[in-house]
């Protein structure tokens, strides 16, 4: 029986561990933190079947100067982070060219198509409706008038990607969500098949519970050094603990960068922080509501409504920018047409790639070392599919056709994005 160390107990590492245990492997899950307490704790909870367009697009390039200049700074770049962003930024620009964007988008559409079925099946296996809502989600337009034909064109584009989507007028939107303010509301895209979690931490905990038993150990330590063994396999040094295993899967989020650098591997995966506030204000929301131009969601969760979003390219450990929390609360107040009270605040680190696709694959030149990160805005959505792909790699299979583009090789062999 193969013994595999999975480094990182976020939604990706937990899902990978689950898939490996299901195939009979011994799993050593290594993380100093309890399961699901990293970025996976604070996301917006959407199994985002609609997210079929990578961020690097001709449209983003056109809008970027205006987005960066916006007074609410929904997207920000920390000047102190620019050296780390150099390789990412250059590749992002190339990925945004029309032909590259079309290629990455096609890859993402296929990946999401595979991922949603797997994620839905996993949610049903682990707890069904206790874990998620199946009421779809809305993306509202409320920045001046939006012609019904323009909204319908956006909905048609999503349908062309294989995603169920309807364009709704303001009356229909308020019929679904009476809490939304009518002021400034011009309509919405409605994705009826989107699921959303009642609490992302509950899913992590359910995965962890399903793992407990023979063949599974949680090693509560931070991996500092990885060394290949002459006999094959890897040695992990984590504080006083030394662990010899047959394979290693790196699921430590942005911390994978340091572990890979030590092996001489540099990938253009950067820290893109996001924020959330949990509201104390009671709001009877039936489904997540996003604001199309502001890239944030109001998601009804077990403990209340969570406002989550914003994009901040900055060093992962930098002190949070408190203005972002008040910005989220202000947007919430606009969306609901009344002041909102914040119960608590959170910041987390997305690990993002220039082409908008995760990095999943065997690390070239390092047998037995597999990497799974770079999920950006989609780690929850893609976690079950990531786990399925990693389990295939552990079994010695190649990445399947729809996932070839995810290999780390794409960033190592050439400078094309
Ligand atoms: C505001 C916001 C909203 C989001 N909304 C959504 C959404 O609606 N849908 C969606 O699909 N995605 C969303 N995301 C993205 C999603 O949350 C992430 O992609 C996902 O949580 C990444 O999971 P992970 O397991 O890779 O990382 P993490 O959850 O960060 O887990 C990594 C783990 O590695 C551990 N670790 C680090 N270093 C070491 C080490 N040296 N040794 C051992 N362990 C280590 C950490 O302690 C941590 O537990 C959102 C993200 C943000 C910030």
Q: What small molecules does the structure contain?
A: flavin-adenine dinucleotide
Strand content: 15-25%
- How many helices in DSSP terms? 11
Q: How many strands, which pairing sense, and closed or not: the largest β-sheet?
A: 9 strands, mixed
Helicity, in percent?
A: 25-40%
Taken together, the total number of domains comes to 2
Can you describe what's shown?
- The protein has two domains: 3-41 and 201-268 and 356-412, FAD/NAD(P)-binding domain, CATH 3.50.50.60; 46-97 and 129-198 and 269-351, D-Amino Acid Oxidase, Chain A, domain 2.
- By secondary structure, the chain is of the alpha/beta class.
- It has eleven helices and 21 strands.
- Strands 4, 6, 7, 8, 15, 16, 17, 18 and 19 form a nine-stranded mixed β-sheet that branches. A six-stranded mixed β-sheet has the order 10-2-1-14-21-20, with helices on one face. Strands 3-9-5 form a three-stranded antiparallel β-sheet.
- It binds flavin-adenine dinucleotide.
- Flavin-adenine dinucleotide (FAD) binds next to helix 1, strand 15, strand 18, strand 19 and helix 10.
């Amino acid at each position: 029986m193969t013994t595999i160390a999975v480094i990182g107990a976020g939604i990706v590492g937990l899902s990978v561990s689950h898939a490996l245990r299901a195939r009979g492997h011994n799993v050593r899950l290594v993380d100093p933190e309890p399961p699901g307490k990293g970025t996976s704790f604070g996301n917006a909870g959407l199994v985002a079947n609609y997210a079929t367009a990578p961020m690097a697009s001709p449209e983003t390039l056109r809008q970027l100067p205006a987005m960066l200049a916006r007074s609410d700074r929904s997207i920000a770049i920390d000047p102190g982070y620019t050296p780390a962003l150099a390789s990412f930024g250059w590749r992002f620009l190339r990925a945004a060219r029309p032909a590259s964007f079309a290629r990455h988008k096609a890859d993402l559409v296929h990946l999401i198509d595979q991922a949603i079925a797997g994620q839905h099946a996993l949610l049903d296996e682990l707890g069904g409706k206790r874990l998620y809502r199946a009421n779809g989600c809305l993306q509202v337009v409320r920045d001046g008038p939006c012609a019904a034909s323009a909204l319908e064109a956006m909905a048609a584009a999503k349908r062309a990607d294989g995603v169920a989507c309807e364009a709704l007028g303001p009356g229909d939107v308020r019929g679904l969500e009476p809490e939304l303010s009518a002021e400034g509301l011009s309509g919405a895209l409605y994705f009826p098949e989107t699921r959303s979690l009642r609490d992302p931490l509950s899913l992590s905990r359910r995965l962890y519970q399903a793992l407990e038993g023979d063949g599974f150990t949680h090693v509560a330590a931070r991996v500092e050094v990885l060394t290949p063994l002459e006999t094959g396999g890897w040695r992990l040094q984590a504080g006083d603990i030394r662990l010899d295993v047959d394979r290693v899967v790196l699921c430590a989020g942005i911390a994978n960068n340091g572990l890979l650098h030590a092996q001489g591997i540099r990938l253009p995966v950067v820290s893109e922080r996001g924020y959330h506030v949990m509201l104390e204000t009671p709001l009877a929301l039936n489904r997540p509501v996003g604001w199309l131009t502001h890239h944030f969601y109001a998601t009804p969760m077990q403990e209340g409504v969570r406002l989550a979003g914003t994009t901040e390219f900055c060093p992962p450990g930098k002190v949070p920018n408190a203005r972002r929390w008040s910005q989220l609360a202000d947007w919430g107040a606009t969306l609901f047409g009344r002041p909102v009270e914040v119960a608590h605040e959170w910041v987390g680190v997305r690990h993002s790639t220039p082409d908008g696709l995760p990095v999943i694959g065997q690390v070239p030149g390092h047998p037995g070392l597999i990497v799974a990160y770079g999920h950006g805005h989609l780690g929850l959505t893609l976690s079950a599919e990531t786990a399925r792909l990693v389990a295939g790699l552990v079994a010695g299979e190649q990445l399947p056709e729809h996932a070839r583009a995810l290999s780390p090789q794409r960033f190592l062999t050439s400078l094309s994005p």
